[in-house]
Structure formats: structure tokens, C-alpha cells
Amino acid sequence: MIDQSRALRGLRSTRVLARELGMVLPRTVAGLNESTGWTPASPRGVRQFGEVMLDELVLSGFSLLGGNLTKEVRPLSACTAAAEELSELGIDGAHADPKPLRAVAIQRRRLPGLGAGLAYERMTFGHDPRLPKTLEAEGLGGPARAVVHLCRHRDGPRPWLIWIHGAGQGGTQDLVLSRISRIHHKLGFNVAMPVQPGHGCRRREWPPYPDMDPLGNVAGMMRAVSEIRAVVRWVQPQATTVVVSGISMGTPVAALVSHLERQVDAVALYTPILGLNGMIARHLARWGSSQDEFRELLGSPEVSKLTSVIDPLSVDPAPPPQRRLIVGAWHDRMAMREPAIALQDRWGGELYWYDGSHVGHIFSRRVQAVTERFLRSVASQKGEDAVFE
Q: Looking at domain 90-381, which CATH architecture does it have?
């Protein structure tokens, strides 16, 4: 009987996999046709097609993972107390000031590559975000091991870039994909790349993040914000400038840090998202009616009240508009365009549109050039003597 049940589950999974892979191509074409600025019969159009397909493949992966979700959905009644407390506290009241960072271990490492490779350090520290009472009561608070990867020059002080990764990232490969070597060696910045909970070397550690639990998602992002605030305060005495940037799921974290830490000098957001729970709910629709209960929970008014304390549209970044950068992807199939537009309307600053997709912007040399120009400009405005070798 058990073998038969496993066989049926395996058959269902195979059918779902075949369906999802079969839908990648039509979804790619439909997404590009819904957009503007796509000319299929051109080298640029072929590149855009490939990038949008990458977005759709990633979303299909999320949909496949959605088929293995737990059948137990947190009832709305279990979210009410936390929703009331968090909405009452607001952003400034809900996020406690972090305690000073005290490193438990610093390991020197080298990432293989061209020449001698990229030297970096992995710093580990214990951190308790001191979450609001209702989240603590749900077992979502308490200390956990935090990790940050560092690329530091031996002299100082130097300008610092705090780079916050997106969902599914956090590994050392981010040092390559984000071209940190150029920023470190060519622009003279020190770089800190915190590993968010549930990612990279923390993937199998408590707490899990993100998942389908709306309370867990809010607590997870608040924990990430607290850890990165501790990193910002740790680098501050050795920094001439502090720039905070985030990509995708790291963008609301970067936005909140730029609001809560008033000493941050500049902030940059790449393919931003707004509500994490709302974004997950929207993409669960791809799975069909089987995930309706999850989708309704994540899109409920109670969950909206929960997420009010991690809403980037409700923050006032410390850096002035000329030190705010938003990079949107015109053919973004994951976060879509709306968050970049809404943030630019709220924040002002520079909005740069990349003509590809959410995933594709990572590999764009034009986006890299915009990033380097922004960092140079920030250093110049602050009167820094960054070492541009």
C-alpha cells in the first residue's frame, strides 16, 4: 500500500513537471507580448527571449516546490494578535536596535578563479533580533548564528558596500555573479555580503525563511534587517562611506536598513519587490486551485497588517534622493515592473530600466556600469578618497 502511494505521488510529480516545463515557452511568449519594446527578429529580441525564459524557468521551479507544501495552513485567527501588535508598533517601534556585533569566528578563504582568485573572509556572529512579543510567543524569536562574507583591504578607512542577496542566493557564487571583485579591487570598496536566514551556508539551519507561513516570513525579514543593521554599525567606525544595496528579496531589507540606520550614505535597489507574502501568493496561482487556501491567507488583510512593518513604501531612507538608485527590469516576470515604479514615485532618485528580465539583469554589463557610476558618484559627493586603481 505504501509503495502504491509513493508510485502515485511520483506519477503526479512527473505529470506536474511535464506540465510546468511545457508551459515555459508559451508563458515566455505571452509575457513578452504583454510587454512593450520586444522585437523578436533581432539579436536584442533573442536575448530578451532567453532572459524571460530564465524567469519563467525559475518560477516553474517555485511552482514545483509549491506542490510539496504542508497541508497545514496557519489560520487567520492565529495571525490576528501579531497583526494588531505590529500595525500598532509601526516600523520604528517594531524593529529593536541591534546589540553590538561580536564575531565568534573569522575564517580566511579564497574563491578559485582567474589568477590567485578572490580572497574573502567568512565572519560568524550570534544575534538575537529581539522581535515583538507576539512573534516571540510563536517561537520565531531568539538567537541564531549569523554569517557575513567580507572582502576587505588591509588599509583604511575605506568606503563600504553592504550587498544583500535575493531568494535562493547567499552562497559564495554571489561573489562572482555580483562582480564584487571589480567593486573591491577597481573601485577600492570594502564589501560585506550578509547571508540571510535560510540561505547559503544557513540553508539547513533554524529559522527557515522564506516559506508559506506569513508570520515566519515577517519574522525572517525582521531578523535579516536586524542582523544587517548590526553589520552596518560594525563597519561604521572603519568606513568613510556606507552604501546599502539589495537585489530582489534583499530590496525591502535594504530599504528598511536605509531608514532605520540614519548613518547610511546611499541605497540601491535592484529588481525590487514590495510585499514578500503578496508576491508568493500571486505566483502560487500558477499551481491552480490546489493552493487556494495558502493564496487567500497570504493575500488577506490580516497579513497586510503584518507586513506593514516591512513595507519599503512606508520608509524614509536616510540618504538624499541623489544617493538613491532603483534598477528595474522592463521584462521582469518575477517581481514585475510595478514595484520599481511605485518606489521611484515614493522615493525619487534615479530609476534605471534594464531592457531584460529579473534574472537577466544580474549578467548585464550596462547594469554593472550604472552600479559603478553610482558608487563613484556617492564617493565623490561624500568627498571620499576611494582608491580607484
A: 3-Layer(aba) Sandwich (3.40)
CA nearest neighbour of 185 among 120, 266, 270? 120
pLDDT tens-digit map of 13-72: 566 566 667 778 888 888 888 887 788 878 888 999 999 988 888 887 766 655 445 456
Domain ranges of the chain: 2-66, 90-381
DSSP 193-259: EEE-TTSGGGTTSSSP-S-S-HHHHHHHHHHHHHHHHHHHHHHGGGEEEEEEEEEGGGHHHHHHHHH
CB 262 within 8 A of CB 318: yes
Positive or negative torsion for Cα 80, 288, 247, 102: positive
Check residue 161 and report its DSSP letter.
E
Give pTM, 2 decimals.
Answer: 0.90
AA letter at 51: E
Q: What is the pLDDT of residues 234-278, one digit of tens each?
A: 999 999 999 999 999 999 999 999 999 999 999 999 999 987 777
